[in-house]
Amino acid sequence: MPVASPVSPFAECPRAAAVVERMRRLNPRANPLKHLPDVHPERVPRHIAIIMDGNGRWAKERGFPRIFGHRNGAGAVRDVVMQCGNLGVEALTLYSFSLENWKRPDDEVKALMYMAVAYCHGEREALRREGIRFRVIGRREGLPSEVVEAIESVEAHTADVVGPTLCLALNYGARQELADAARRLARDVAAGRVDPESVDEAAIASRLYAPDLPEPDLLIRTGGEMRVSNFLLWQISYAELVVRETYWPDFRGEQLNDAVREFSKRSRRFGDVEAK
User: How far apart are CA 95 and CA 137, in angstroms?
Assistant: First the structure.
């Protein structure tokens, strides 16, 4: 006999209902009161960023090559994307390949590039069917042409989707993103389009790779390492950090729920003396 879902203590809360209504305008299947009943919908992050770490160690501990861990990590991606939709998360950014990852062995890099193409081909129709907009941030110069073609195909196929965003950081580095933004801004100043005295934080933020996405509220790192690894340095200025020992291939919807629960208990003061 199926077990009934627990009734959320916030089920009759007008503020909770208003938040869920807002979530469903973007994603009709969002139902945080069902999928995370002990957290008020107001406390669900709008944007979650994840450093998917531990694939290689997961494989090594099982006696397999590192790429075996990366392949098994694809299942975690699918599960977390679906659970973010259930919770009403507006954007999910996954750190899939950094500029520093080119230092890895050639066979591992080639396999990761192949996996990027395979993911795009395999998930292209599913993303549109589920109402998910696909984005990629990072430098496309230097990526194999087949990778660029694959990601641009999925981006175009989901461009008109009105729904949550799945953003992959591919060939990405935060310092390089800031350098690219500074270069764009410098060109605009040199062309007379921008007064240098008017340059402020908004001028820089508007020239980042995805300025239309809200800044991450929550940054999750799997695999236990205590660093941000050149990931979204500008955008995570006030993000809450949650580090889990769990390797990425074992990270699933319930682990995501636990991270959101921890986030929901944080006091976010943004430099003030009272929580916002």
Answer: 10
Question: What is the sign, positive or negative, of the torsion defined by CA atoms of 237, 239, 245, 246?
Answer: negative
Mean pLDDT of the 175-200 span: 97
Specify the 3-state DSSP secondary structure of 95.
Answer: strand
Are residues 198 and 164 in contact, defined by beta-carbon separation less than 8 angstroms? no
The arithmetic mean of pLDDT across residues 67-94, rounded, is 96
Q: pTM of the prediction?
A: 0.95
- Using DSSP bridges, classify how beta strands 47-51 and 91-98 pair: parallel, antiparallel or unpaired: parallel
> What pLDDT, in 10s, does the model give residues 220-256?
999 999 999 999 999 999 999 999 999 999 999 999 9
CA distance 174 to 208: 10
pLDDT of residue 268: 82
Nearest residue to 30 (alpha-carbon basis) of 40, 39, 21: 21
- Name every residue whose Cβ is closer than 8 Å to that of residue 42 and which is 6 or more positions away in sequence: 15, 16, 19
What stretches of 13-117 adopt beta strand conformation (E)? Answer: 47-51, 91-98
Q: Which residue, chain included where needed, has tokens 């979650």?
A: 48
Query: What residues pair up with 165 in beta bridges, in sequence order?
Result: 91, 133
Mean pLDDT on 255-273: 90
The span from the first CA to the last CA of the chain, in angstroms, equals 43
The residues that bridge with 169 in the sheet, in sequence order, are 95, 137
Closest CA relative to residue 74, chosen from 132, 116, 137, 125: 116
Q: Name the catalytic one among 53, 86, 171, 217.
A: 53
Pair 44, 88: CB distance under 8 Å: yes
Active site residue 200: no
Q: Which of 38, 55, 79, 101 is catalytic?
A: 101
* Neighbouring C-beta atoms of residue 254, cutoff 10 Å: 10
pLDDT of residue 273: 67
Is 101 a known active-site residue?
Answer: yes
The confidence band for 275, taking pLDDT boundaries of 50, 70 and 90, is: low
